TrEMBL record:
Subcellular location per the Swiss-Prot or TrEMBL entry: Endoplasmic reticulum membrane; Preautophagosomal structure membrane
GO annotation terms (biological process): autophagosome assembly; autophagy of mitochondrion; glycophagy; lipid transport; piecemeal microautophagy of the nucleus; reticulophagy
Single annotated GO MF: phosphatidylinositol-3-phosphate binding
Membrane-topology descriptor: Peripheral membrane protein
Protein name: Autophagy-related protein 2
Organism: Agelaius phoeniceus
InterPro entries, per the entry: ATG2
Keywords: Autophagy, Endoplasmic reticulum, Lipid transport, Membrane, Transport
A GO cellular component annotation in the UniProt record: phagophore assembly site membrane
Coiled coil, from the record: none
Catalysed reactions, as listed in the record: a 1,2-diacyl-sn-glycero-3-phospho-L-serine(in) = a 1,2-diacyl-sn-glycero-3-phospho-L-serine(out); a 1,2-diacyl-sn-glycero-3-phosphoethanolamine(in) = a 1,2-diacyl-sn-glycero-3-phosphoethanolamine(out)
PANTHER family to which the protein is assigned, alphabetical: AUTOPHAGY-RELATED 2, ISOFORM A
Similarity annotation: Belongs to the ATG2 family.
Length: 109
């Protein structure tokens, strides 16, 4: 766990994480993140988000910019889990696990 977060109460850590995630991911989500969707264990190096609905237009804009010949119509994630190896950061990979990824795509016109 990073030194700066050691003395913070768990509720404050969760709210700070939700705030940061909302800033970064908010444009790509249909609804604002709720604390109930967030699972956080900074000491263990894991964080998870559950039941996310993607904002198709925002994600599709990224796909179009990358030249992907498919258009996203709708999408969602059952869960996203990130594992950060604090003690070996830089030498061990940060792991991202997606569960129940659902994408409805069609050919781009």
């Amino acid at each position: 766990m990073p030194r700066w977060a050691r003395g913070w109460p768990e509720a404050l850590k969760a709210r700070a994480a939700r705030y940061a995630l909302q800033l970064w991911l908010g444009p790509f989500l249909e609804e604002p993140l709720r604390l109930e969707q967030l699972g956080l264990d900074l000491r263990g190096g894991t964080g998870s988000l559950r039941e996310l609905r993607l904002r198709a237009a925002a994600v599709d804009e990224l796909l179009a910019g990358a030249g992907v010949p498919l258009e996203l119509r709708e999408g969602g994630l059952g869960a996203v889990t990130v594992t950060v190896p604090w003690a070996q950061l830089g030498s061990e990979p940060v792991r991202l696990r997606l569960q129940r990824l659902r994408l409805v795509l069609r050919p781009r016109e």
